[in-house]
Amino acid sequence: MKSDIRVCSAWRGRHDRPVYSLSQTCPECGAPTENSAPAPYNPDDTYGEYRRARKRRAVEESQATHDSQATEE
Ligand SMILES: [Zn+2]
């Protein structure tokens, strides 16, 4: 589903949190807004990749535990 919600392009330097708007400019600082949909891949989002990797490991560990319990029966 396509979203028309936009976010202040300068919020990181001007606001404590993302400022969302449906207009072409930020209602708080007047900076241009940009589409709030996340990019498919952000090379700067290293922490995001780290989080995803940790989540994958957690899922694998829970599955491994389940498998070992099943094998013991
Ligand atoms: Zn702003």
TrEMBL record:
Signal peptide: none annotated. SUPFAM superfamilies: Nop10-like SnoRNP (SSF144210). GO terms for molecular function: snoRNA binding. One of its GO terms (cellular component) is ribonucleoprotein complex. Keywords: Ribonucleoprotein, Ribosome biogenesis, rRNA processing. The keyword Iron does not apply. Pfam families: Nop10p. InterPro entries: H/ACA_rnp_Nop10, H/ACA_rnp_Nop10_sf, Nop10_arc-typ. Belongs to the NOP10 family. Involved in ribosome biogenesis; more specifically in 18S rRNA pseudouridylation and in cleavage of pre-rRNA. This is Ribosome biogenesis protein Nop10. It comes from Haloferax elongans ATCC BAA-1513. The gene is nop10.
